[in-house]
Design brief:
The complex is a heterodimer of chains A (111) and B (113). Chain A is an all-beta fold. Chain A contains no helices and 11 strands. In chain A, the strands form 2 sheets. In chain A, strands 2, 4, 5, 9, 10 and 11 form a 6-stranded mixed beta sheet that branches. Chain A has a 5-stranded antiparallel beta sheet with strand order 1-3-8-7-6, with no helix packed on it. In chain A, strand 4 and strand 5 form a beta hairpin. In chain B, strands 2, 4, 5, 6, 9, 10 and 11 form a 7-stranded mixed beta sheet that branches. In chain B, strands 1-3-8-7 form a 4-stranded antiparallel beta sheet, with no helix packed on it. In chain B, strand 9 and strand 10 form a beta hairpin. The chains are: A mainly beta (111), B mainly beta (113). At the A-B interface, strand 4, strand 5 and strand 10 of A face strand 4, strand 5, strand 9 and strand 10 of B.
Chain lengths: 111, 113
């Protein structure tokens, strides 16, 4: 089954800086989603981008999708300490919601 | 608060035992998904139910089974437990079976000793 693979795996930045994470996948998708997970907690949906979209914004989040390269990026602008978490991309094939998750990016924002 | 409730939050048991994890989906959601999260395997899709019927199966072991009841809550049964079954088990729900976001519970942390 397809699976998102995030890059880089771990990121440590200062508060106020931007954080960028990348994700690649292997097969055709219907949509790609990003989730955040605080340590040991449940995943929280951040943003969904459909296969016919190239860019999407939500607050301080910007997601891009390049279906020709089978890749996506998540940008968090003006990071805050509360953004410290693991970020996962997940791909959804057509016709169902069986999300396949990548291994996650750990982001640490230093106050 | 996602609206998805999972119990128990923590569970410690011995090898060979059987446990049941419970999930109540968000009000109005008909689909329930089970995921296993471990350090080595990451987040693995186990199984999905929609309105009481099994919809999709992922990497679920034969020792594991699940069901969704008429009131839409779901249970994941894990039997003949092994040390490697220690993991976080998440339940998620969504409105339908198509695309869209999943709402995750806080998970049940299973430790097998």
């Amino acid at each position: 089954s397809q699976q998102g693979e995030e890059d880089p795996q771990a990121l440590s930045i200062q508060e106020g800086e931007n954080a960028t994470m990348n994700c690649s996948y292997k097969t055709s998708i219907n949509n790609l989603q990003w989730y955040r997970q605080n340590s040991g907690r449940g995943l929280v949906h951040l943003i969904l981008i459909r296969s016919n979209e190239r860019e999407k914004h939500s607050g301080r989040l910007r997601v891009t999708l390049d279906t020709s390269k089978k890749s996506s990026s998540l940008l968090i602008t003006a990071s805050r300490a509360a953004d410290t978490a693991s970020y996962f991309c997940a791909t959804a094939p057509y016709g169902n919601n069986r999300l396949a998750f990548g291994k996650g990016n750990q982001v640490v924002v230093i106050p | 608060d996602s609206g998805v409730t999972q119990t128990p939050k923590h569970l410690i048991t011995a090898t060979g035992q059987r446990v049941t994890l419970r999930c109540s989906p968000r009000s109005g959601d008909l689909s329930v998904y089970w995921y296993q999260q471990s350090l080595d395997q990451g987040l693995q899709f186990l199984i999905q139910y929609y309105n009481g019927e099994e919809r999709a199966k992922g990497n679920i072991l034969e020792r594991f089974s699940a069901q969704q009841f008429p009131d839409l809550h779901s249970e994941l049964n894990l039997s003949s437990l092994e040390l490697g079954d220690s993991a976080l088990y998440f339940c998620a729900s969504s409105v339908g079976v198509g695309d869209g976001e999943l709402f995750f519970g806080e998970g049940s942390r299973l430790t097998v000793l």
